[in-house]
Amino acid sequence: MHRGKGMKFVGDSRVPAERKPFVPKDYSEYPGKTEAFWPNYLLKEWMVGAVFLIGFLCLTVAHPSPLERVADPTDTGYIPLPDWYFLFLYQLLKYSFAAGPYTVIGALVIPGLAFGGLMLAPFIDRGPERRPSKRPLATGFMLLSVAAVFYLTWESVDQTDWEAKEKMGAISAVEIDKNADGYKIAEANTCLSCHGGELGGGAAAPKLTETGLSAEEIAEIAVNGKGNMPAGVFKGTDEELKVMSEYIAELK
After folding, report:
1. Which residues cross the membrane (predicted)?
2. 195 is in an annotated binding site
């Protein structure tokens, strides 16, 4: 203890005179509580990952993904849809400000700004707070993004005729011979634009496979129409009508 002008200086042995950098103890000093990262810990991680991978592969074998029929560019009645996690972008392209001549805005500009904003959010709001209420910019960006994705996905699901989509995309067990004269006649008379290139039906047209109708009944519908199909669609000759009707009637 040293005396000064009314002041006393007291030394504390608990405060080291020299500051040393903190170096964590080796894992060997904690027996049973920790282990080396390589190869012990990493090997366990790989084993757990392998178990999940094998389980996932078994799941895909037991429950194959619901594939649709082979893509047909001549089928103008088919409604293509992306996977569920891209439905919000699909819905965005339906709006006038992001479709037609503004497709670049809907496909590149708006998604680029949105995802760019999410990437820049940690740099814009660099506060030390951890509570969402204390970080308004980062929280606002995230809530706005989640709300936009949820709303657009919901709108896309609500506006899609899933029953018609499933019918058009179903894999038909009936073999379609596209080189047959009956198929070529149906294609020449624009039947495929409504009934599909695989004759599996469209949004407003039934399938032409396994109709259960006779050739005469099919010819009658082709000439006079039925339901949503107007009369006079078929423009071919009587001989072509007979060939096409017999071809469709035999699709069983």
Report:
1. 46-63, 102-124, 136-154
2. yes
